[in-house]
Amino acid sequence: MRRALVVGGSVAGLAAALALSRERYEVRVLDAEPPPPPGPPRQAAPRWARPSVPHAFQSHTITSLAVRELRRHVPDLLDSLLSAGAVLFDLTTAIPAGPFGAQRAPGDEDLVALGCRRTVFELILRQYALSRPNIEVSHAVTVRALRLGPRREVRAVVADGAGEVPASLVVDATGRRAASRAWLRAAGVPLPADEIAPSGLAGYARHYRLRGGGLPGPLNRGHAAGYVGSHCAAVLHPSDGDAFAVALGVLPGDWSLRALRDPESFTSAVRTSALLAPWLETDVCDAVSPVYAMTAPPNTLRISILQSGVRGLYPVGDAACVTNPLFGRGIALALAQAFALGPLLSGSGEMEAGPAAADLAQQLLRPWFEHAAEADRERIGRWREAPDVPLPPAPIAAAAAADRDVWRALTRMLMTLQTPAEAFGAPGFAQRVRHAAATGLPPGDAPRRPELLEAIAAARRPQEVPA
Q: Burial code of 258-274, b = ≥16 C-beta within 10 A, e = fewer?
């Protein structure tokens, strides 16, 4: 049986290990982190410290593409997630009703999303991977270098905690830091610069638990609720069991909004949205976490690693491509790339699959990198130039409230099932949008900046004590 090393034991690394194990590889995962705490995933998740995954406790989306990948490749893993409290959301319940009702169409069966906290998802994925007979995970092992042969073929890795580990196939799943770039530089392999575009986003997120059953309000963004305004964005994700998370995104350096780190200010800011306020009523939910702050990384595409001529080295997940987490596509793209890479390596051999893996990355990852880069450029400019000017409803979002086909196109794009070009490029689509937008409903209720600042200030004023 062939052997493979996967460096990094998070979602992308564990998915790659599963994909390779299905192709009859013996897989060893080298994880720099200590093992997670013991106990059932929903109890262990809040106690799992992740120094190398600082975004683990941020709000996450598990889109329709991710669910489709799980159904196709590891349906029993999806069953385990559902048994642990994850929830499948049928997005077709939001189809605009026509004269004959909200009729379904071919492909609607894919329009589902999974509500699950990132840490719970990862713990169950880890348990599932460790149940495979040909996967092992070594913890507290940090890979420092790559040993190459005379034809730039992978021979071994050098790691703290494991020494020199022979390997002819290494998967870099080290996340946003993409450690393989440093390994290749140290080995004397020249690489062009990554393709980078700023995301221009700082984030604040908090987790809550509902006290009763049912959703307190409607969902208007796939299986999420939220808005993108003239100076900030908000998104709420229902999660496993009765949990949900709310995230607010602002421009980095917007110091007037740094008070969002304060729990009372965060709550007050979220309640300025009529769409989100019902979720945060005091008799509806309890906060179960502090407010987590994060600066989003830039959108980054690293296909150059696959074009370096090094044979046997393959980046997956964020090590290959990072897109603004506001779009929530990271887990889905990591799963899709990992499960496609396994058969590719099996068919071409780990030493010869570089060009095919580069083509896969171009086809799968580049469209989403380019979409995120373009959307972020537009949003950053708008937020900087006119933060106090209310935004009109986006034409496609407004049209989706009235036209079922526009709704399907938008939802399939939001859920990573189709690229924007695929979703919006059909003949006559622009005309449908123009016609439907006139009768559609606004996609959200973004607060104006003065309203948000006043809500934050009010939360921080000393409360008057009744006489």
A: ebbebeebbbbbbbbbe
